[in-house]
Amino acid sequence: YSAEKQEGKDLTASSIMTTSPYQPQLDLAKEAALKAGEIIRSYCSHGTGRSSKNVTVKSGVDLVTEADTKVEKMITGLIKDTFPNDLIIGEEDQADSPNGGQGDPFPKESCWCVDPIDGTTNFVHNYPFVAVSIGYMDGGIPRVGVIYNPFTDSMYEAAEGGGAFLNGKQITVDSDASSVEDCLLVNNIGHYRYEDFVEESAERVKKWLKAGLRGYRASGSAAQNLAHVASGQVSCYYEHGYGGPWDVCAGLVLVKEAGGVVWDARGVETDLEMKFGKGSVCAGGRAVVEDVLRVAGKPTFEFADGK
Fold first, then answer.
1. 117 belongs to the catalytic site
2. Mean pLDDT by 10 residues, the chain (307 residues)
3. Quick check: is 182 catalytic?
4. Which pLDDT does position 61 carry in this prediction?
5. Catalytic residue status for 10
């Protein structure tokens, strides 16, 4: 998604998009995502297995790299330069200095939610499902979402009321899927390895398969999953235990602007709300989300600080 490509494709998008009051935030998020992509690519060795990226274990099998920190600092700096009064909540900064505990609500003021590299384990293994995710919130509601995969050069963007776009072309959710039988489902299980969590996650997958699920995928990146739902490349995304609001903030805007719903998988037709800590999500076209949740049943594993 080079500058030359961006210029040509944005003309296509601008001819369709409704003018959004959040255009300045959208423009900044795209600029930051492209610069982040350059940093991410500079750390990778194509055609090899694992690369040395100064990997640190945050907890269990959850990883963070030097690149995560470098990208987040760059994005944070750009936002502060343009919107100095806005709050910024980044995944790595939040890990060091938490702004809220499990289930606490997000602040209502202007706020940015940043995941510098969503899919860090994929990144460490040179597996290309890696995304920069930048969301902007106002009044506690996500208004702008940008997700960029630097390896596929895919720029997903959306601002409230303006539609969703992939590299400048308007996208919509999969309108053909209405049940598990015609659903390509992507389901991340995350980094928890507690026995009760693993058992519940495995049982849920068995329920979908026994109900005749068309296809099951697990990409390792919540942001990429939501982007793929918005573009109709997968029918539905389910995860009980996504890492934090930075995983889903941008993607929530994309899916809604692409005509889909983003629900809390623990409720009944409950819109997902941005809260601190781990969460539960099901996103896609309304009919297929309803059926995926019906088959799965309500998750029972509860998240808490430190677990």
1. yes
2. 46 57 97 96 64 51 69 95 94 65 90 93 89 97 97 97 98 97 95 91 98 97 98 98 94 98 92 93 98 97 78
3. no
4. 40
5. no
Q: 72, 115, 290, 291: which one is catalytic?
A: 115
Structure tokens at 207: 């329920």
Give the active site residue among 10, 68, 91, 93: 91
Contacts of 281 (CB under 8 A, 6+ apart): 222, 237, 238, 239, 242, 248, 262, 263, 264, 265, 272
Model pLDDT, residue 10: 47
What is the model's pTM? 0.89
Terminal CA-CA length for the chain: 39
Q: Out of 10, 72, 118, 291, pick the active-site residue.
A: 118
Report angle CA 243, 244, 247 to the nearest 5 degrees: 85
82-99: b or e for each residue (b if 16 or more CB lie within 10 Å)?
ebeebbbbbbbbbeeeee
Amino acid occupying residue 89? I
CA distances from residue 289 to 107, 164, 253, 264 in whole angstroms, order as listed? 28, 19, 17, 11
DSSP 271: B
Residue 37, number of CB atoms within 10 A of its CB = 21
The answer to whether 291 is a known catalytic residue is no
